[in-house]
Specification:
Layout: H1 5-19, H2 25-35, H3 38-48, E1 60-63, E2 78-81, H4 83-97, H5 100-109, H6 113-130, H7 137-152
Antiparallel strand pairs: 1-2
Helix pairs in contact: 2-3, 3-4, 4-5, 5-6
């Protein structure tokens, strides 16, 4: 069952709020255990297993609390993943927390740059709308109608 937008937003805020309280890997593990979703279960499993690297495979460093959620760039917030696992981690982040930045990362890791950039643009628009930044066309139409009515009178 997919969470609704309110639940996703609450979880994102929990990520950011709890960040101030997390200062090491053990505290992060405890937080992930309490969070209980497909992303945290996946990451907890990957934190306990060492990545088996083949001769030609590149190992990726994944930020457990993503940088776009204000996750720190420190060792305890990172886990080593294969490319496939890194793609999957960002898909799970999107499913559980709803940020298009994670969907963008997933697509870009697969080489789908144009699609990834479109998701970044979509998230940026949502962020601007939430913060009430930028030009709002609907209010402009209302204001321009008011001006026309005043000019006619």
């Amino acid at each position: 069952m997919k969470k609704n937008t309110y639940e996703k937003k609450t979880s994102i805020n929990n990520f950011i709020y709890k960040l101030d309280l997390i200062i090491n890997k053990e505290q992060l593990k405890n937080y992930l255990i309490k969070e209980k979703n497909s992303y945290t279960y996946f990451i907890l499993e990957k934190m306990t297993k060492k990545v088996k690297k083949s001769k030609h495979e590149i190992i990726h460093t994944h930020h457990i609390i993503p940088r776009h959620y204000k996750g720190p760039n420190v060792k305890w917030n990172c886990v080593q993943l294969s490319l496939e696992d890194h793609i999957y981690a960002h898909k799970l982040l999107y499913i559980n927390y709803g940020s298009y930045y994670d969907l963008a990362a997933s697509n870009m890791l697969q080489g789908q740059l144009k699609k990834g950039f479109s998701f970044i643009q979509k998230q940026n628009q949502l962020n601007m709308k939430e913060k009430k930044l930028g030009f709002i066309i609907q209010s402009f139409k209302v204001n321009s109608q008011n001006v026309q009515e005043k000019e006619e009178n």
